[in-house]
């Protein structure tokens, strides 16, 4: 048998709050998606290392109400839990902008998933666990702090017992994200605390029954990188899974901050994997999350990387394409101009929710994005988005191409030039700052941020491309903008109809 190693993160880019379950030799993992539609990306793996997105749990508008006005960036869908029980896959989650806590289920992970069944409990980050007699427990972070527990009917959504308080953690702030698991004769309650920033941590308690009483582990927090110099930070919000060989593994979120102090992260909170041992007293033990580690034993199942270029030749968009808040019928089409994605403007600006945008998560610290755009009589282009108040874009319309930067309350056109008639290629490159020399295109001529974003008329790697502007990437970071998400790079239209013949996302080798 060959020994393999893996690199962290195992799912890069904005894929936070991972929850995992195993069914036979297959693993399934779901992540938070916040204000984006479709919601809750769903991944499959045979080895815990190589993950392929096989869909989204909530892919119908009826499943995901994110009403406007009212919904906001970093609202929407918070931390989900996925479990398999009694022949069904179950996902429980919170929609903070549209109804509260709910359960959906499916016979197959690819779906179709049911419409939400709403649960009458107040809080966030719900979890599901079943006793041997079929009793179903929902643990969640209560509105007054601490972890609450209720016995529910997951099919009807009714509360049968409780809710009542269980455990409030080891004393750190924001005890949340509970996962209730039965291991041997003990019930374990795994939680996040310390906040999802640099103080993030994983802690654990146990009891003989879900009703308690609960005792915290003497070594809590079980895991935290707070105050360390490790390149992976904000470690927390974990779930546990047992491999077929009996070994235990933890999936959790973390970030990879970069740049001059204070370090910032731009890819969002990502999914990491780390091994778990059990001590002689029956408590889980987790070492600091490694950048590289020996892989789980047994099967090794690499999956092909998604194609770098999407020519929009299919009948549906690939599952990694997402849109803020909604993707209304009539705002996009793959059939109106076969072989192209046509976007119809639903709002005149990217500064206010209600615009037409189709994008994908930035998953690498260095990458190149290009697209062939035909604006016709409309206006649109490529945008790097964090939220409505933090985004950069290169767009074409009215015979000109321009670069616009929105940072907080300020919006400025930083470059513009005449555009040639007909379809043209627009490009964005992202480079880490330690590789970026001083440039006259860069405001101030230098950067202390984590990366630099360059905007182009033409393919940046092809002869004849015109550099337009370079912007400091720190302003599109969570530490500047706030929130729970990461960068999303995509296509948009703010006037008329804009056709995209293809879109290409090419990562650098180092990721």
Automatic annotation (TrEMBL):
Name of the protein described by the UniProt record: Xylosidase/arabinosidase
The UniProt record lists the keyword Hydrolase: yes
Organism: Streptomyces gancidicus BKS 13-15
Keywords: Glycosidase, Hydrolase
Domain (Beta-xylosidase C-terminal Concanavalin A-like): residue spans on this chain: 309-506
Residues annotated as catalytic: 17, 176
One Pfam family in the UniProt entry: Glyco_hydro_43
GO biological processes: carbohydrate metabolic process
A GO MF label: hydrolase activity, hydrolyzing O-glycosyl compounds
InterPro entries noted in UniProt: ConA-like_dom_sf, GH43_C2, Glyco_hydro_43, Glyco_hydro_beta-prop_sf, Glycosyl_Hydrlase_43
The family this protein is said to belong to: Belongs to the glycosyl hydrolase 43 family.
Residues carrying the site annotation Important for catalytic activity, responsible for pKa modulation of the active site Glu and correct orientation of both the proton donor and substrate: 125
Transmembrane segments: none
